[in-house]
Amino acid sequence: MRDLVVEFGQLLRLKRKAEGYSQEGFAKYVGIERGNYGKMERGTVNIKLETLYKLANALNCEFEEIMPSRLKHKTNLD
Asked: Residue ranges of the domains in the chain?
């Protein structure tokens, strides 16, 4: 599970940078403390579904774009 959180953080960082945001600027824009946002990008914390949608909306993308690849293609959840 930890590797999924790390991959999510990496994808989040790439998307944020592609949109031209600094970590501090984006955290402020989204309304998250920069330290907590940094933990998300480093993959050291799990995030709420509500936060995922908030991040995707701020990045002008679907949440699937920042989800780990193993979750994108999973069709049967046990």
From this structure: 2-66
In this prediction the pTM is 0.83
**CATH 1.10.260.40: does it fit domain 2-66?**
yes
* Angle at the Cα of 46 from the Cα atoms of 25 and 33, rounded to 5 degrees: 25
For residues 39 and 47, the answer to whether their CB atoms sit within 8 Å is no
Amino acid at 64: E
- What are the pLDDT digits (tens) for 17-73? 999 999 999 999 999 999 999 999 999 999 999 999 999 999 999 888 888 876 555
**66: which DSSP letter?**
G
